[in-house]
Design brief:
With 86 residues, this protein is of the alpha+beta class. It is 45% helix and 23% strand. The strands form 3 sheets. The protein has a two-stranded antiparallel ribbon with strand order 1-2. Strands 3-6 form a two-stranded antiparallel ribbon. The model has no long low-confidence stretch (mean pLDDT 83).
Amino acid sequence: MSARAVSLAMEQEEAAAASGVDTASRTYQCDACGDSFEGEPAGAGLFLWTRGDEIRYEEPPLCEQCASRITVGALLKWDTEDEEEG
């Protein structure tokens, strides 16, 4: 899912929430494992790249399990690197 698609989906959900429409039935596909899930993404990845002067961002949705695994893995790596320096 492109950054524009995610952004558009989020804007549509915000507009629907403001109007009282239930957004819990929105379906996403996790970028890490590929599973489909309903409701709000538990997190998002971040891809950043440039092409000439243009900067592109993409924030693909993550399911709860993958968001937790990626977060814990990053924290463990950060803690390990911190111990090696100090």
